[in-house]
Amino acid sequence: MDSYIIGCLSGLTATTLVQPIDYIKVQSQLNPSVNKLNLFKNIYKTYGFREFYRGINIALMRQCVYGTIRLGLFKDLKDNHKVNPINAAVIAAVAGTLVNNPIDYFLVKKQTENNFSIKNIIKNEKINTILFTGLKYNLLRAISINIGFGCKTIYENKLKNNFNNDLFIKSSSILTASITSAVISMPFDVMRTYSQKNIPIINNLIILNNVNKNLNTVSIIKNINLLSSFKNIYNTFPIYFMRITPHSIISLACLDIYTSIFNKLKK
Fold first, then answer.
1. Which of 46, 200, 237, 261 has its CB surrounded by the most CB atoms within 10 Å?
2. Both ends of the chain: CA-CA distance in Å?
3. What value does the mean pLDDT take over residues 150-177?
């Protein structure tokens, strides 16, 4: 049980601290041609700093579910059942995403629609749309992020063969694992955002109103091509990197910190 409490607390801590970056990341992916600094300034000038925490309630609810399973199950399998870190990462990512996908759908809607209402979404959209929209991209995204987490143990063991400084070993392995997560998960995050937002594009213009029709993979790739070129899918990587890397670093660091605290409390 401790592993799941620690996983939940780690996810909540990381999300609370990086939520403003997550909001900017989503807006950047939907407006890739807009200068990121200008986008930040315009949002701040128009809505104030509170706008960057738009959807924080859903984001925290998401972590109570997703963080508990993805981080908690990963830690439980790795530490208590001695499962290979990569295998544990994949299993935890799949389990967490299957349960969490509807909440993630609500979060993207909240961050991109001014007239957002969970009640209206449930009333107006089909249940399979809420449950499964963006699921395959969320699965790929979660698996790739968690594989990065699994690599932390691998990096850590390799560093221990050459270095004796525990602080350096832990911080270096966390940083490297977080960078790995960001690089391999970026394409799936972009496609997840497009899928759950359901954005059609006509004559190279984004239509930002609600659309009940789900976009398939080909449509999403075409949309990204029209908007910013699929070859340049990493053009929002800096802002994504600024979001996913701190979140991963904080999550992994908190897993170690909260584990240490729980172990001391048990004594």
1. 237
2. 17
3. 92
